[in-house]
Amino acid sequence: MALCNRGVRRTLLGACAYGALGLTALATRSTCGQEDQGDAAPQQQFDNQQSRDNAIKLQGTGQQSSEKFVLQPGLTMVEVSHDGQSNLIIRLLDEDGQNIDTLFNQIGAFRGEQGFGFATGGQRLLEIAADGNWTVAINQPQPTDAQRLPTELQGTGYEATPFIQLDKGLVVFKMKHNGESRFRVTLRDRDGQLVETLVNTLGAFEGSKPVSIETPGVYFLNVGADGDWSIDAQ
Predict the structure, then answer these.
(1) Residue 206 CB: number of other CB atoms within 10 A?
(2) Residue 120 CA: distances (Å) to CA of 64, 93, 131
(3) What is the pTM of this model?
(4) pLDDT in tens, 160-185
(5) How do residues 130-141 score in pLDDT, each as one tens digit?
């Protein structure tokens, strides 16, 4: 299924460059015509693609404060990369410069994505501490459908998993990790709010966690790891 007819897509592109600071902010917005709804997987792909088309994209080098941007309340996916050797710390601030949340705190080269849930929206900016080149992409998907159980999720390092549909009742998550550092998995709802911490340990891991789902709906997992991991949900 074609996600968007290139002939009718409209893209509004805004860029702001700070020559002396080396900071570039790029935001894109696009609209597509109505598409037929297929099965669950194509619908999720379409929702995710729309969200990525609407991403707020920031890039720079070293310590910077970003251009201001607007976030809506709810689920916010943040994908970052950094090629430096020292600390990478990214904080989300409100329009008055007050800290809302520390999104990432890593050391050295890093690439990853995590999902967050914010109760309020408004003008926001990022405070970034780094010693290398970095990029940030922020998008706010509105998932309406997802993979159904049983399903196996696999990845490497820091990732927000594809959305999964959970019914009310017991779900068992079986997890494996072959890394040496922190392995942390959290279950979050479609608004990005924390539901349950499934595991938070160091090094290689193989185990499971039962979770009682009170509200049926769309969920996802935030995975923090330094190795390969797999999660079997059933």
Answers:
(1) 10
(2) 24, 12, 31
(3) 0.77
(4) 999 999 999 999 999 999 999 999 99
(5) 999 999 999 999
Give the residues across from 79 on adjacent strands. Answer: 113, 137
Cβ neighbours of residue 12 under 8 Å, at least 6 residues apart? Answer: 28, 29, 30
The Cα 34–Cα 229 span in angstroms is: 37
Cis omega (within 30 of 0) for bond into 150: yes
Cβ atoms 193, 206 nearer than 8 A = no
Contact 185, 221 (CB under 8 A): yes
What are φ and ψ of residue 223, in 5° steps? -115, 125
189 CB-near residues (< 8 Å, 6+ apart): 117, 195, 215, 217, 218, 219
Strands 147-148 and 164-166: parallel
- DSSP 3-state assignment of 210? strand
Residue 229: per-residue pLDDT: 98
Residue 144 has a pLDDT of: 84
Cα dist. 6→32, 56, 178 in Å? 9, 21, 43
Which pLDDT tens digit goes with each residue over 35-54?
Answer: 333 343 333 333 444 445 67
CA distance 128 to 143: 29
